[in-house]
């Protein structure tokens, strides 16, 4: 159990490397002198390497032993982060972000693998609650950590924080995790074709999703090439994994209804959960001008309640009479209510108006993730399948991070353009009616400044700011409604795909 705690600390640290850096990216770019376009690759490269790490980590953990591979991953996580503030150029930053992403991808699946290995069926649900912390608690806590380091201490701590956390995690794993015998003979059956296709396909797909909006999608030659590469490499990867005798991904497990639901459900849940963190924070920062220190309390509410709700859900699901599918439906109903209520935001909203809806998120999210994890792990028939289950579940989660970047950019681009055109058109028509009613025609050409530029009245600048505010508000409202629609779709999925399963202590006692 103490060794599992060490892996949990390492997993939380790796997620901070990702999410805290993403939230503080503007401060990091300013401190290191990185332009906006160059800064977009900091997140893109991280996600690419994270996907690769999540696929291969369980396979390598079995080969090198869980203890040794976990210690290596923890060391890589700490070293790659602490060096970034001292990088002499952008290329070195990119290389270290790749290593950071790889380390994060290696560590997260090890948490589930360790939980499935060291916990008996009687207490497995509480181990799943530990894993669920990385899906609900850590993302919500990231805003508070960002505020602490950027607004109070120093931006470099964003990267230095990994040193004490990884050191503690390494000590716990070293002394408390059992040492197995390595299985180096597995390298004779190394899935090298799958590894090559994985690196190429995931890199092309994640880069296309992250960079597509900035590069104007298929008007960019790079995006066209990436789309072609991913369209070829990913199907070949799936075919290779299906037929390989010792694959990284055992796709046959998706034939089990509960496991298929878990993989798809975690993908959708990772996107829907942004309604409780990324969307409210973005509104407060762009419309109200909040800094992380001012806006973090609304996500801290979610994080704090997870420490109570996740163990409570483990206790609830341990009763034979409780149907995990019903618990999921109730949780999704609360998330849907939160999205619907948050969609009524106006320019007068501040963080106080979000507290009630964040409370619904804080209760609903663990009610979704805990049944999902129980359904998936109950389909694992033996210790040999644990690493394969961890690889599939966490790969779905990693792909959701890339997909969510594309999804929210798509919403912003389409809805922003629609709302801006409509508002500008309405304002223009109203102004023309006023001009015609007063018999005053607009002055043309516009008066010039002494420097030869058109003179822009101060009121026009204020009008432009107000117009952009309204566009952002309407787009945020649409985003909440779309995420609510995804919640409804996931509710339909819960009602049709999975079958009922008993608590692990009962389920495995009858098998």
Structural notes for this entry:
The chain folds into two domains: 2-177 and 246-415 and 471-510, MFS general substrate transporter like domains (Growth Hormone, Chain: A, Up-down Bundle), CATH 1.20.1250; 187-245. Helices cover 75% and strands 0% of the residues. It has helices spanning 2-23, 25-32, 36-64, 66-82, 90-118, 124-152, 157-160, 162-176, 192-211, 221-243, 257-272, 278-286, 292-295, 297-317, 324-342, 355-377, 386-438, 458-496, 504-507. Helix 3 (36-64) runs antiparallel to helix 4.
Summarize the structure.
The chain has 511 residues and is mostly helical. Helices cover 75% and strands 0% of the residues.
């Amino acid at each position: 159990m103490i060794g599992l705690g060490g892996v949990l600390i390492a997993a939380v640290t790796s997620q901070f490397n990702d999410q805290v850096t993403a939230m503080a990216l503007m401060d990091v770019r300013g401190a290191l002198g990185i332009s906006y376009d160059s800064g977009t690759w900091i997140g893109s490269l991280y996600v690419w390497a994270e996907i690769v790490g999540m696929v291969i980590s369980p396979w390598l953990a079995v080969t090198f032993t869980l203890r040794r591979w976990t210690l290596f991953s923890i060391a890589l996580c700490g070293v790659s982060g602490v060096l970034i503030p001292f990088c002499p150029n952008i290329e070195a930053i990119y290389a270290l972000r790749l290593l950071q992403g790889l380390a994060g991808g290696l560590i997260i699946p090890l948490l589930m693998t360790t939980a499935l290995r060291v916990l008996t069926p009687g207490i497995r649900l509480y181990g799943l609650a530990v894993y669920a912390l990385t899906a609900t608690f850590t993302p919500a806590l990231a805003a508070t950590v960002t505020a602490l380091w950027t607004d109070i201490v120093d931006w470099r701590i964003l990267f230095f924080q990994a040193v004490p956390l990884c050191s503690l995690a390494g000590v716990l794993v070293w002394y408390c995790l059992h040492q197995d015998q390595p299985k180096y003979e597995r390298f004779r059956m190394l899935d090298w074709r799958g590894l090559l296709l994985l690196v190429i396909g995931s890199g092309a797909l994640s880069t296309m999703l992250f960079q597509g909006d900035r590069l104007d999608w298929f008007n960019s030659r790079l995006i066209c090439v990436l789309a072609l590469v991913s369209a070829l490499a990913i199907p070949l990867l799936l075919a290779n994994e299906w037929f390989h005798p010792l694959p990284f991904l055992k796709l046959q497990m998706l034939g089990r209804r509960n496991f298929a639901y878990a993989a798809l459900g975690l993908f959708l849940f990772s996107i829907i959960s942004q309604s409780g963190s990324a969307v409210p924070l973005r509104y407060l920062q762009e419309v109200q001008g909040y800094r992380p220190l001012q806006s973090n309390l609304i996500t801290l509410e979610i994080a704090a309640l997870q420490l109570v709700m996740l163990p409570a859900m483990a206790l609830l699901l341990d009763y034979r009479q409780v149907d995990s599918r019903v618990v999921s439906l109730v949780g999704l109903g609360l998330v849907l209510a939160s999205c619907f209520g948050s969609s009524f935001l106006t320019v007068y909203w501040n963080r106080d108006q979000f507290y009630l809806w964040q409370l619904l998120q804080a209760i609903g999210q663990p009610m979704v993730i805990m049944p999902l994890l129980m359904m998936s792990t109950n389909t694992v028939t033996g210790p040999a399948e644990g690493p394969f289950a961890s690889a599939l579940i966490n790969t779905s989660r990693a792909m959701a991070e890339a997909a969510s970047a594309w999804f929210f950019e798509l919403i912003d681009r389409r809805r922003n353009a629609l709302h801006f055109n409509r508002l500008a058109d309405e304002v223009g028509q109203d102004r023309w009616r006023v001009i015609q009613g007063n018999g005053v025609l607009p002055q043309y050409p516009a008066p010039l400044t002494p420097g030869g530029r058109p003179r822009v009245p101060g009121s026009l600048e204020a009008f432009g700011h107000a117009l952009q505010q309204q566009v952002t508000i309407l787009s945020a409202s649409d985003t909440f409604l779309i995420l609510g629609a995804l919640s409804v779709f996931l509710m339909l999925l819960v009602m049709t795909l999975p079958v009922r399963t008993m608590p692990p202590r009962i389920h495995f006692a009858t098998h």
